[in-house]
Known about the structure:
Elements: E1 2-7, E2 10-15, H1 19-22, H2 26-35, E3 49-55, E4 60-63, E5 74-79, H3 85-98, E6 104-108, E7 118-120, H4 129-142, E8 149-153, E9 157-159, E10 169-170, H5 174-184, H6 191-205, E11 219-222, H7 223-232, H8 239-246, E12 252-253, E13 258-259, E14 272-275, H9 277-291
Parallel strand pairs: 5-6, 5-8, 6-7, 10-12, 13-14
Antiparallel strand pairs: 1-2, 2-3, 3-4, 8-11, 9-14
Helix pairs in contact: 4-7, 5-6, 7-8
Amino acid sequence: MSLNVTLNGVILVLGRFTQNRTGESPAGAIRRLDQAGALPGFDSRADLLPIGCYYKRTGEIRSFALGGQMRKYDIVYILKDNAPSEELRFSLRSIEANMDHGKVWFYCGCPDGFAPDEHVAQVQKGSTKWERVRSSLLEICKNDKISKQFWLFNDDFYIMQPMQSAKNYHRGLLDDHIKDIERRHCGGSTAYTNNLRRCEQQLRDAGLTTLDYAIHIPMLVDRAKALEALRMFPRCPMFRSIYGNYAKIGGDFIVDCKTTDSERIINPEDPFFSTSNRAFAGKVREQMEKLFPDPCRYETK
């Protein structure tokens, strides 16, 4: 007995298959259903639990923990009303296609043409960009209706492959990143590198590690720990690196995926992708339309 829900090329397979009761694993159950032609079917038994996902585009089978419910985290975007809607559109399509998640929250703005699960029309406070972002992060971390851990997203983050686990990433040490930028600027510093240096020094002064989490990839954030970090480092604008090191999240090394090249050819096998406004207006948008052609449930037009 199974319930199958198809969204943007992903079939969520629900059932009662457990190794203890039938000797059949979730992956085996999904394969059998597919071979029998049962995946397109629909049986509306509401008491069934997720056993896995079947991705039609790649044929990949992804099993969930035996006998248990998927663990899902909410997704939070901090937006302006006039945020670039096409980038957000494909970000949302990519999470629906490749990510198990809870509610999608928009904080502050809600661009025309979208309907998230929840919208908090917060009025940001502060005279600088960081102060305004910090005011939103504080409100998010205090909101007990958001899952205790949540994915922090930008509107130009794209999930290119099915996410296999909830993990965080970094790109090595802050000092290495700073030196790399300074080399490209012939030894000169920028406002950005100055902020990185201040962040690194504050972390060192606090006896913490100095990994660089300022990459264009969704970050899994613990609300309680993030609130502590925001209060401990109120003037540091590098939230991701402050939080990641304070909360000791560790993570895997990854090369930042953001591109500013309008001619960039997307590798759909990469796990993540991000783009500047200018780059998105080039060939990137055409490729996104082919990769994620189906509207998601958060689009109203």
